[in-house]
Amino acid sequence: MDFSNLLSPEVQSFINQNIEGDINKLLLKKSPFSSVTIQEIVQQIKGKKVAQRKFPFLLKDNLIFPPNLNLEQASSQSTAEYKAQNLKGNSFLDLTSGFGIDAFFLSQNFDEITLVEQNPELIKIVEHNWKTLNRNANFINQSLETFLEDNQQKFDIIYLDPARRDQNNKKKFLLEDLSPNLLGIEEKLNPISDKIIVKLSPLIDISYLVSELQNINEIKIIAVRNEVKELILIIKNQETRSDNPDTKITCVNLESGEPEFSFNINEEKSATSEFSESLNFLYIPNNSILKAGAFNIISEKFGLKKLHPNTHFYTSENKIENFPGRVLQIEKIDGKDLKKNNQFNIISKNYPLKPDEIKKKYKLKDGGNHYLIFTQSINGKEILRSI
């Protein structure tokens, strides 16, 4: 695959000059270059725009960006850097390279790197970009199944990011519906690596994963600015697992300044919460905690009281530091105290009205520096205002 026309100084300059321009208008124009179509130019502009917010380390000259679907499916730089922490060894294998963002960071402390990708154009783009960025690897254009059939090597770490869409572009969540089928290849992976890392959809059910896959040592739930982006499975052979057979859950909310929170699944099963009406401080766990289902262990570990069995808000008389979520000093108010056109950030949890319905009922406006929380404690419905 020849990128020389796209990489010519004139074309690269034109791409950089039009990054902030109107792509739709550009598509209606004829390409100013006989050797490159306007569609090819626009794809590179789109790629650079995605890189600005998702992987800024690629905002360099002479790199090539793939089609939109590959950009969408690639991990962000921040999640890739997080996953790369404490990873090192001799040999690293990525069986589903894609655009290679995860592999670029996860493999940086390995001597020998192998990337497998069945899309011939995509693996050529990755090979070109890595060489431009002075990174070496074995780039293999094969299906995962063929590679595993022929492979005789053992690897320190194997990484997979199974495709989560079918041929009709519909999202899939069951392990057997992914490509590759994790349940189908698990027995082939275990003999060639003691540690397997798998990236999955944030929508997949954790209890389902634990029941279906053997030897899950840890599940990492990765959110970025409170939006859960990925579930990461760390699968270890029985011989390399710790003495504790329980699965560890690690919750992280990147770019938030909040601390990680870790617990074992059986800890949550045995933990209990005390309940209380709202006190002086309200604690709202970040979404990685909620995805983990850490509803009782978060209460127990921080010494907090829960408002209600179905309200995952917590409270205390005195402020507790280092909570993985939002902490608000609050006061209870009556709905009659709300004035027309008052401005609040409205939160509604375990309450019959949604935020838009609350705004309409009380004639409130969005925004401002204070929160208005409509919820329910063991004493019934409550309206709370941040101080």
Description of the structure:
By secondary structure, this protein is α/β, with parallel strands linked by helices. The protein has 3 domains: 9-65, no CATH class; 72-257, Rossmann fold (3-Layer(aba) Sandwich); 270-386. The protein contains 14 helices and 16 strands. The chain has a 9-stranded mixed beta sheet. Strand 8 (248-254) and strand 9 form a beta hairpin. The longest helix is centred in the N-terminal third of the chain and has 17 residues, at 38-54. The model has no long low-confidence stretch (mean pLDDT 95).
The parts where pLDDT drops under 50 for at least 5 residues are: none
Helix amount: 25-40%
CATH class descriptor name of the largest domain: Alpha Beta
Order of helices and strands: HHHHHEHEHEHEHEHEEEEHEHHEEEEHEE
Shape type: globular
> What distance separates the N and C termini?
61 Å
